[in-house]
UniProtKB/TrEMBL annotation:
GO CC list: cytosol
Organism ancestry: Bacteria, Pseudomonadati, Pseudomonadota, Betaproteobacteria, Burkholderiales
HAMAP family with a match to the protein in the record: DEAD_helicase_RhlE (MF_00968)
An annotated Gene Ontology molecular function: hydrolase activity
Protein name, UniProt field: ATP-dependent RNA helicase RhlE
Keyword Hydrolase tagged: yes
DEAD-box RNA helicase Q domain location: 1-29
GO biological process, one term: response to temperature stimulus
Underlying gene: rhlE
Length: 483
């Protein structure tokens, strides 16, 4: 299967091929036809599966076809992509620009921590696609510097992380300001009850795509536990890095303070290291990521939230210096390695305090992680566990919040439960077409819908730009948006 066979125009295929991609990944093979069909989509995809291209490419195709058919149409914000962090927003918009190299579409990225004025200037010049974090988008909406009246496509990327960071209320405020008639795409690495509730309130008879088992880790990642006393973790980490000559090591800590302290200690050990977290300035975070990506920085120490958006091909090593309080975060963390079929290694340094966290993780991923005691770092068999501070609490060893939990229920908006229709079955082989329930080979397209007026992009995104509009009339549901 090729990208061209999925209905993408030649300029998009050319840009993708120039980036070294010749075959779509399973999520791309299933999501691209579904998005081109114009219907809503609920996609379960882990980090590193190529999900960003799974929604950016068909969005670019639809807008490219729209402007080809409507040459006099004014430039307007027609697609909005919401992400939980600045880094992920920047990464997604970078992908949009790379894929749109040969089509005349404009995009911009908007997040906090930097001046809002350049973002306002970009909006004044006219953009087709906006990638934003919820808070900064609301700033623009309140200042009336962004016009979303022509919006046709909304994407919630890494929706599970947005809920975990407490963005549900911001998301609802954004939804309340968007046109009722639009296509909604929700991507999440995990399917918690909160995600299901959000999907039910947001999506209209969505296609359901899952390319990996729920809440599981990729088979390409070699996972290992090194038991160690809590006060010897840093010493063991330094030993492992030197012993195995590791480079490009992404290390996770539970707190911002812990990230700073570990980076300082590693630097004193002669290992180049920097920390990124929410308290760092945007310029400092950008610099650290840049040096890490180009291999001038050996170790990047990060909190869970700050690490979202780190997109590095063939990242070899991920280390859990602290196990996460939430088991799903373990899946997110180690998903930074072993991406797109490449092999990766995930090492966790586990002390006696974290044994219950380890059991929770193994229960989630439905497998026991192998353990290896490193000679010279044998844990004290008589050590007693000490309590680990949970999110939102202060003080203690390794305590504190690194972003807050405030997920909460997304709410059902008073609507009945709907079972999403399956666009395809889970797929194991890359580049193969999705299988339908009836045994066919094409991803199930959205049902034909009534044409939408107002000069919006057509739902049938064939490369020639033809086809009738496939967007639905949702006027009866407009009052439920953003509740």
């Amino acid at each position: 299967m090729s990208f061209a066979s999925l209905g993408l125009a030649e300029p998009l295929v050319r840009a993708v091929n120039e980036l070294g991609y010749t075959q779509p990944t399973p999520i791309q093979a299933q999501a691209i036809p579904a998005v081109l069909g114009g219907g809503d989509l609920l996609a379960g995809a882990q980090t590193g599966t190529g999900k960003t291209a799974g929604f950016t490419l068909p969005i670019l195709q639809r807008l490219h076809a729209f402007y080809a058919e409507n040459r006099g149409a004014r430039r307007a914000v027609r697609a909005l992509i919401l992400t939980p962090t600045r880094e992920l927003a920047a990464q997604v918009e970078e992908s949009v620009r790379a894929y749109s190299k040969y089509v005349k579409l404009r995009s911009t990225v908007m997040f906090g921590g930097v001046s809002i004025n350049p973002q306002i200037d970009a909006l004044k010049r006219g953009v087709d696609i906006v990638v934003a974090t919820p808070g900064r988008l609301l700033d623009h909406m309140q200042q009336k510097t962004i016009d979303v009246s022509s919006l046709d496509i909304l994407v919630l990327d890494e929706a599970d992380r947005m809920l975990d960071m407490g963005f549900i209320h911001d998301i609802k405020r954004v939804l309340a300001k968007l046109p009722a008639k639009r296509q909604n795409l929700l991507f999440s690495a995990t399917f918690s009850d909160e995600i299901k509730s959000l999907a039910d309130s947001l999506l209209d008879s969505p296609a359901l795509i899952e390319v990996a088992r729920r809440n599981t880790t990729a088979e390409t990642i070699a996972q290992k536990i090194h038991p160690v006393d809590r006060d010897r973790k840093r010493e063991l980490l330094t030993h492992l890095i030197r012993e195995h000559n590791w480079f490009q090591v992404l290390v996770f800590t539970r707190t911002k303070h812990g990230a700073n302290r570990l980076a300082e200690q590693l630097t004193k050990d002669g290992i180049s290291a920097m920390a990124i977290h929410g308290n760092k300035s945007q310029s400092a975070r950008t610099r650290a990521l840049s040096e890490f990506k180009n291999c001038t920085l050996q170790v990047l120490v990060a909190t869970d939230i700050a690490a979202r958006g780190i997109d590095i091909d063939q990242l070899p090593h991920v280390v859990n210096f602290d196990l996460p309080n939430v088991p799903e975060d373990y899946v997110h963390r180690i998903g930074r390695t072993g991406r797109a079929g490449a092999n990766g290694e995930a090492v966790s340094l586990v002390c006696v305090d974290e044994k219950q966290l380890l059991r929770d993780i193994e229960r989630l991923i439905k497998r026991e992680i192998s353990q290896e005691v490193i000679p010279g770092f044998e844990p004290d068999p008589n050590a007693k566990p000490e309590p680990i501070q949970r999110r939102g609490q202060r003080g203690g060893n390794g305590g504190g919040a690194n972003g807050g939990n405030g997920g909460g229920s997304a709410g059902n908006a008073g609507r009945g439960n709907r079972a999403p229709r399956a666009a395809s079955q889970p797929q194991a082989q890359q580049g193969q077409p999705a299988a339908r329930r009836d045994g066919g080979t094409q991803a199930k397209a959205a049902k034909p819908q009534q044409a939408r007026g107002g000069g919006r992009p057509a739902g049938n995104g064939a490369s020639n730009g033809g086809g009738a509009h496939a967007n639905r009339n949702r006027s009866s549901r407009s009052g439920q948006r953003g509740r």
